[in-house]
Design a protein that fits this description.
With 150 residues, the chain is an alpha/beta fold. Helices cover 47% and strands 11% of the residues. The protein has one domain: Rossmann fold (3-Layer(aba) Sandwich).
C-alpha cells in the first residue's frame, strides 16, 4: 500500500475525489452500504457495482467483509460469499492503523458519527489512492466532493 496519496490532491485536510464526484477511472474501494444494498436487491446498487466492475477490479477493506458477514441474513450465505469472492481484499495492517489514527485525530473532534471502522476504511482508500464507493458520505468527510452513487 505504498504511495499513499499518490495522485490525490490534498484540500484543507481532505482528499479530493475529482470532478463530478469522482466519476473518472481510478481504483474504487467499495463500502459496506453498497454491498448490503446489492445483496438486498437494490437495482441501483447492482447497476453501480456492474458499472464500476466494468472499469476495473473492485477493492474492499477487510473491515467491510466483517460488516457484511455480521449482517448476513438466513438464506443469504451463498450469494454473499459469491459477491465477496469477486472483490480484492485489503487487510487492516500497521500502516492502515497509523493512518486511521491520524484521520481520527483530525476528524473526530468535529464529526462524532465516524467510528473506527470508518477510519480504517478511509485510511485504506487513501493508501490505495482509491475513491470510496459508499452511501454513507457523512462518515467520510476526509474525501472532499464525495457523493453517494445513487
Amino acid at each position: 500500500m505504498a504511495g499513499a496519496g499518490r495522485g490525490r490532491r490534498r484540500v484543507g485536510g481532505s482528499f479530493a475525489v475529482g470532478a463530478a464526484g469522482g466519476r473518472h477511472a481510478m481504483t474504487v474501494l467499495v463500502d459496506t452500504s453498497v454491498l448490503i444494498d446489492h445483496l438486498r436487491g437494490s437495482a441501483d446498487a447492482t447497476a453501480v457495482l456492474e458499472r464500476e466492475r466494468s472499469a476495473g477490479p473492485l477493492h474492499a477493506s477487510e473491515i467491510t467483509r466483517l460488516e457484511v458477514l455480521a449482517g448476513m441474513r438466513a438464506g443469504e450465505e451463498q450469494r454473499t460469499r459469491f459477491l465477496l469472492s469477486a472483490l480484492r481484499w485489503h487487510p487492516v495492517d500497521a500502516e492502515v492503523a497509523e493512518r486511521a489514527g491520524e484521520l481520527g485525530r483530525t476528524w473526530l473532534p468535529s464529526h462524532h458519527g465516524i467510528d473506527g471502522a470508518d477510519l480504517a476504511i478511509a485510511a485504506t482508500a487513501i493508501l490505495l489512492d482509491a475513491r470510496p464507493l459508499t452511501r454513507n458520505v457523512r462518515h467520510f468527510p476526509m474525501f472532499a466532493g464525495l457523493r453517494a452513487p445513487y
